[in-house]
């Protein structure tokens, strides 16, 4: 069988399970509104949680940065790609995390996927055991596969199961690796208790705060600020393509850990540095995140979350036969668990007909039988926007119930 026949058979199998993924082209727009096929859609799917990507100050800063630094960085950071803008970003982040990690220092990456690969593969050597939370993001799972460490998975948020695994480990270095906010469920990892376990068993805690950075904590510094944590055992990964409205990522940790990443993380050493104009604009983004605009957007997110959850609970009550449910989420990620793959895609299609873009998420991204609408809120959504979503969902639910 040729490779093309082999792949065609695999593609047919994906399609038979209603699992084909499709790229949708946005012709213009920024969250929460974009135009697709000439139709304006109200989006509940962007991770641009504060709506910063649309801020004129960000576009101005990119233009200013490009005039000063040009387009790309031209080389990896250790060759010639490291600019004063890159350094100002990591200096700011080191200052932000100083209250949470003694001797904090930060290092930048082009994406969160890269940052996770770097930290887990560089620290996860033969002497190490990685304790990986069951619902971790794909990039952490891939990173653990690539590391030379032993990998042990523990069930979601189940510290009673993690404890004996840590106790039984004979590894010289133990790394507990977890998302802070789970990307498909929206719930928070029990970070204070994980840190206690890390202290008890001399382990280190790698926290992927992709969905907490900018959103959680009074100043938007994420889950460490939210929980008021401080420990040299904390190794924080933050991403800058979501609430920061741009792109990139960072690791903030004790200076010795960061220095080791600089010396040893292959995807830091062998990959072109991010464009300096983006780094320059990140400085503006950081000012917005910690200033009054960021605070107002975070307050609006909390209000819209409450409105959405109340509405979704009422919807589930009206249509018990559909068997829909919510997760235990107190973040802008508010999934509606529907169950079947075909059902969730039909629901997403019905919402799109009503002018709303909400993605259906299916296995293998989530467990079989838990396909869901992944509703995400943006700090610029209005009360009327959330009402529009709830009204369209009520209509779609009534139609699905009739058809069932
Ligand atoms: N970690 C988590 C929890 C994520 O949700 C994502 C992105 N979806 C990443 C890491 C990867 O970040 P990036 O998109 O910057 O590569």
From TrEMBL:
Q: Where does pyridoxal 5'-phosphate bind?
A: 112-113, 183, 211, 239
Please state every residue range assigned to the domain named Aminotransferase class I/classII large. 41-393
Q: Under which pathway is this protein filed?
A: Cofactor biosynthesis; biotin biosynthesis
N6-(pyridoxal phosphate)lysine found at: 242
Q: Which family does it belong to?
A: Belongs to the class-II pyridoxal-phosphate-dependent aminotransferase family. BioF subfamily.
Tell me the NCBIfam families matching this sequence. bioF
Name of this chain's protein = 8-amino-7-oxononanoate synthase
Q: State the organism of origin.
A: Roseateles asaccharophilus
């Amino acid at each position: 069988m040729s490779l093309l026949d082999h792949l065609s058979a695999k593609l047919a199998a994906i399609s038979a399970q209603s699992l084909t993924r499709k790229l949708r082209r946005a012709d213009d727009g920024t969250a929460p509104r974009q135009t697709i096929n000439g139709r304006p859609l109200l989006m509940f799917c962007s991770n641009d949680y504060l709506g910063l990507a649309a801020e004129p100050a960000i576009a101005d800063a990119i233009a200013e940065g490009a005039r000063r630094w040009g387009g790309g960085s031209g080389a990896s950071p250790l060759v010639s790609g490291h600019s004063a803008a890159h350094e100002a970003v990591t200096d700011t982040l080191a200052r932000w995390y100083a209250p949470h990690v003694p001797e904090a220092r930060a290092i930048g990456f082009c994406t969160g996927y890269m940052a996770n690969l770097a930290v887990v593969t560089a620290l996860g050597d033969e002497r190490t055991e990685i304790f990986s939370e069951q619902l971790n993001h794909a990039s952490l799972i891939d990173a653990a596969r690539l590391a030379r460490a032993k990998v042990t998975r523990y069930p979601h948020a189940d510290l009673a199961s993690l404890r004996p695994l840590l106790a039984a480990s004979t590894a010289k270095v133990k790394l507990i690796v977890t998302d802070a906010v789970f990307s498909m469920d929206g719930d928070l990892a029990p970070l204070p208790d994980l840190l206690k376990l890390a202290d008890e068993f001399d382990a280190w805690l790698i926290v992927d705060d992709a969905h907490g950075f900018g959103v959680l904590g009074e100043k938007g510094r994420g889950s460490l600020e939210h929980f008021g944590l401080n420990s040299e055992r904390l190794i924080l990964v933050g991403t800058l393509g979501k609430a920061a409205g741009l792109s990139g990522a960072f690791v903030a940790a004790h200076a010795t850990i960061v220095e080791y990443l600089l010396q040893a993380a292959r995807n830091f050493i062998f990959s072109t540095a991010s464009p300096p104009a983006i780094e320059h604009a990140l400085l503006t983004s950081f000012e917005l995140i910690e200033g009054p605009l960021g605070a107002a957007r975070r307050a609006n997110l909390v209000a819209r979350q409450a409105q959405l959850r109340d509405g979704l609970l009422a919807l589930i009550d009206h249509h018990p036969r559909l068997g829909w449910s919510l997760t235990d989420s107190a973040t802008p990620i508010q999934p509606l668990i529907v169950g079947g793959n075909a059902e969730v895609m039909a629901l997403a299609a019905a919402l799109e007909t009503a002018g709303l873009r909400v993605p259906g998420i299916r296995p293998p991204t989530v467990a079989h039988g838990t396909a869901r609408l992944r509703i995400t809120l943006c700090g610029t959504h209005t009360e009327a926007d959330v009402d529009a979503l709830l009204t369209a969902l009520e209509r779609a639910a009534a139609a699905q119930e009739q058809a069932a």
